[in-house]
UniProtKB/TrEMBL annotation:
Species the sequence originates in: Escherichia coli
InterPro entries: Amidohydrolase, Peptidase_M20
GO molecular function: hydrolase activity
Protein name: Hippurate hydrolase
Superkingdom in the source lineage: Bacteria
Pfam family, one: Peptidase_M20
Alphabetical UniProt keywords: Hydrolase
Length: 137
């Protein structure tokens, strides 16, 4: 059996990685069997630095207006390899940039129905330029 372990905090992830083998072994023992758990270290929890996330949001507000920039969105249980970068340099953040209106045919990336909205290239490029300028000031 394979499972994917995802959590929203490092402490919870560590608890899960500790408890899963104990639970698997206890459940197997209740049936007179044994269990072996092999952990392949997957993607760590992605945790944004609050200060950097707020900075990026403020630049988005200045670039697009407060009504088009969200801060503190509900955490996602996705598996994102950018978390390795934030482990190496915690003073950073991961952000989502809109790819068009929510509606028919819209979906998240890594979905066979995903269709990149080319119209988002110019606004996204403007934002990244504004973010760099703000950081260098």
């Amino acid at each position: 059996m394979k499972i994917s372990v995802r959590s929203l905090s490092r402490d919870t992830r560590q608890l899960l990685l500790t408890r899963i083998p104990a639970l698997a072994q206890a459940q197997a023992a209740s049936f007179g069997a044994t269990a072996e758990v092999t952990h392949v270290n997957g993607t760590p929890v992605l945790v944004n630095d609050e200060e950097m996330a707020r900075f990026a949001w403020q630049v988005a507000c200045k670039t697009f207006g407060e009504d088009r920039a969200e801060f503190g969105i509900k955490p996602l249980m996705g598996s994102e390899d950018f978390s390795f970068m934030l482990e190496a340099q915690p003073k950073g953040g991961f952000l989502l940039f809109g790819n068009g209106d929510v509606g028919e045919g819209s979906c998240m990336v890594h979905n066979p129905g995903y269709d990149f909205n080319d119209a988002s290239l110019v606004p996204a490029s403007s934002y990244w330029g504004a973010l760099v300028e703000a950081w260098l000031q």
